[in-house]
Amino acid sequence: MRFPAQLLGLLVLWFPGSGANVAMTQTPLSLPVTPGEPASISCRASQSLLDSDGKTYLDWYLQKPGQSPRRLIYQVSNRDSGVPDRFSGSGSGTDFTLRISRVEADDVGVYYCLQGTKYPFYFGQGTRLEIKRSDAQPSVFLFQPSLDELHTGSASIVCILNDFYPKEVNVKWKVDGVVQNKGIQESTTEQNSKDSTYSLSSTLTMSSTEYQSHEKFSCEVTHKSLASTLVKSFNRSECQRE
After folding, report:
1. d(C-alpha 146, C-alpha 206), whole Å
2. In the chain, what are the domain boundaries?
3. Is 139-239 a CATH 3.60.10.10 domain?
4. Which CATH number fits domain 5-131: 3.30.1490.20, 3.20.20.70, 2.60.120.10, 2.60.40.10?
5. Higher confidence at residue 194 or residue 177?
6. Could you give the CA distance from residue 143 to residue 156 in angstroms, rounded to a whole number?
7. How big is the chain by its Cα radius of gyration, in Å?
8. Structure letter (DSSP) for residue 52
9. Residue 192 has what DSSP assignment?
10. The pTM is what?
11. CB count, 10 Å around CB of 117?
């Protein structure tokens, strides 16, 4: 059963997991895999998906970062055109499996099962496939607010972490040695399909008046790949230009 990309987006947004009639449960939710190794994702329905026409409408979709979901498998085990034979589907009744015989770096993304037997149709919660690789230390850069921004009454200090693995990382902000807990926003990229690393942006925002009243601004990074905390800092009076 094929759905327009726009409808798929709405289904993923509004109907994850369960509905009034059929609940769809995927395991695992996170799947780290080394390239070349096999991987499998399970999907269980709360009731049989065998339709009265004798067919079972269980599909598998892959959503890559910034793209609409793409169907891989339809009616349990049929591959869509252009899908590599590394992908296969199996199952019946309530239990279904998507298998990848040899994972490649380009397979990263979120995999969803979708039942199309009973209306309304529902996706599972999604399984995020991640490529395992060796630990990689982040490259860290700290940027002060621009003068143009300060003139607007706001100040944003940005700490950029590039090319690290694994994904788990901790960023701590300090102003004149005091840990900051407010005005912080973080954004992590999806895994890079080329080198399987992540990048993160952490922004500390305050009023320009508050910024001018402090001197030292620090971004402290803790990560599995680092033997000790990595600290980037600047003194406002030393780098500010009129």
Report:
1. 13
2. 5-131, 139-239
3. no
4. 2.60.40.10
5. 177
6. 9
7. 23
8. T
9. P
10. 0.77
11. 21
